[in-house]
Write a structure and sequence with these properties.
226 residues, alpha/beta, two-stranded antiparallel sheet, 6 helices, 9 strands, 33% helix
Length: 226
């Protein structure tokens, strides 16, 4: 079997470790689509491991000398019912501006105050932007993305992670969100449009800081053509 350390145009249904460095090499080999920036979007259900994966990819990118920024969709959502608005803010005030050679900008949503707070800037000189969170790989971002990653695990694991993080008092919010995101992903066909489908709770032995477990790799699923 051909090693999954080298991304082919289409390598479906593999469960061998894929190095994060080989992923970044593939991204760097292609032209930037977001002005001077290469964009990686990490989408998938809540609690599947998106933020953890984003941080690990960012760490490897920085180790390779890439000026990298991670943007969390949680910082853009207008509360529990504000995911659609959050993506619109990402598209209109960050991605569109970077594509035009201008700095991106957004206000971080303060979940305790239920209001948008301080302003954050995303320099147009950033080499790699990693956006993680539900809606990050929506169709309206396709033309700018160098890579779309979908990460998933079981509903039980996801809910347990969410309640452990946010507390039992927010269980109903989590259940409502899980129903909403299911319908949203179906409408956007998000999983099928991804270049990689990653296991968010893998049993396969690997080094999680350097590798991920991809159940499918499909580089031919080109963002600009999706």
């Amino acid at each position: 079997m051909e090693s999954t350390n080298r991304l082919t145009s289409e390598t479906p249904q593999t469960t061998a470790p894929l190095t994060i460095d080989s992923l970044l090499e593939h991204v760097q080999a292609a032209p930037a689509r977001l002005g001077r920036t290469r964009l990686i979007s990490i989408d998938g259900p809540a609690g599947s491991g998106k933020s953890t994966l984003a941080d690990r990819i960012a760490a490897r990118a920085e180790a390779r000398g890439l000026h990298t920024r991670v943007l969390h969709m949680d910082d853009l959502y207008d509360g529990w019912d504000g995911a659609v608005r959050g993506f619109a803010l990402l598209r209109d005030h960050v991605l569109t501006r970077l594509a035009d050679g201008r700095e991106g900008r957004y206000r971080r949503y303060d979940w305790n105050a239920n209001a948008y707070a301080e302003l954050h800037l995303v320099p147009a000189t950033i080499e790699l932007l990693i956006v993680e969170g539900v809606t990050s790989a929506d169709r309206d971002a396709d033309a700018w993305q160098s890579l779309k990653i979908w990460i998933e695990t079981s509903n039980e694991v996801r809910l347990d992670r969410g309640i452990e993080r946010d507390g039992e008092a927010l269980r109903d919010h989590w259940l409502d969100w899980m129903r909403w995101e299911r319908d949203h992903f179906a409408a956007e066909n998000t999983r099928a449009r991804a270049n990689l489908v990653v296991d968010g709770n893998p049993a396969v032995p690997h080094d999680p800081e350097l590798e991920l477990i991809a159940s499918s790799v499909n580089w031919a699923n080109d963002s600009a053509a999706s």
